[in-house]
Amino acid sequence: xxxxxxKNLKTYFYTSEGIVKAVDDVSFDIQKGExxxxxxxxxxxxxxTSLSILNLVPAPGAVAGGEIIYNGKDLxxxxxxxxxxxxxxxxxxxxxxxxxSLNPVFTVGNQVAEVFAIHCSFDRKKARDSTVxxxxxxxxxxxxxxxxxxxxxxxxxxxxxxMIAMALACGPSILIADEPTTALDVTIQAQIxxxxxxxxxxxxxxxxxxxxxxxxxxxxxxxxxxxxxGKIVEKGPVGSVISTPAHPYTRGLLDSLPKLGRNKEKLxxxxxxxxxxxxxxxxxxxxPRCPRVVEKCLAEEPGLFDLDGGGCAACFNPVPPxxxx
Length: 325
Prior knowledge:
The strands form 2 sheets. The protein has an 8-stranded mixed β-sheet, with helices on both faces. Strands 2-1-4-5 form a 4-stranded antiparallel β-sheet. The longest helix is centred in the middle third of the chain and has 18 residues, at 186-203. It has 12 helices and 12 strands. The radius of gyration is 21 Å and the shape is globular. Helix 4 crosses helix 5 (124-137), helix 4 (108-120) runs parallel beside helix 7 and helix 7 runs parallel beside helix 8 (186-203). The chain is an alpha/beta fold. The protein has helices at 46-53, 80-86, 98-101, 108-120, 124-137, 143-147, 156-168, 186-203, 214-220, 238-243, 248-255, 295-299; strands at residues 4-15, 18-30, 35-39, 61-70, 73-74, 91-94, 174-178, 206-211, 223-228, 231-237, 305-306, 312-313. A hairpin with a 5-residue loop joins strand 11 and strand 12 (312-313).
């Protein structure tokens, strides 16, 4: 049974220039003890999907349809006071910019301790002790000193560990990580990824990992959903999607990754750019940039077709199943 089931989610932004379909009929499940990754370029709808789960979509956005089932309840039908009891306690989120997520005028320890005070009704001493133990779990050195530090006194990697500690304070069933390594250097990035994988096992939770980097996904994810212009265009087990991508967009993302030992070669690029969300294209939304476009792509939008290996792709002319180099 899935921990979380998102069904036909639609999240739109109602602007003066028109309706922006940021998330357009997206479905997925998160299982206990697995990492599901949503991958795609900036502006494809990844972050809006995660914000929709916790009812945090900013105005003028709103969830226009679908279901988000957790513990037999549709989160979209809950009142704000009820969703607050779930947000941070049972479903937590780590944002991509820790410096903007942490309050600069309070110590990081007090900010995490507040989670214990609100959701667990701990007194000040117990909240502090619990925070220090949580800092130890996320491998923060000298946790007692860090408790009394302000965000600006910590490195980006240390700030992100504080955010992970805050998200895991109440032992949630689901962790949403929205590009948690974007602003970090490669060494710290690897440490944070290893930490998330380790904590997933310790807390027996499901993880929704959002990123634009398929190189990261191949190391940590169990399943991948590739997103383009508000829709899932390919999904499947990490091994099959990475080794034999079927959708031309997925192939383009993989081909654009730098290859070890081939530093003199020019990087492959996907021509063009993501279409304006205000421009409602007929047919497949990727067709203006697709090297495998056929006439049917211009007139009809493809649904997800089953593939060998347990995956699916929304493409009328998929990439032949050959191994990538």
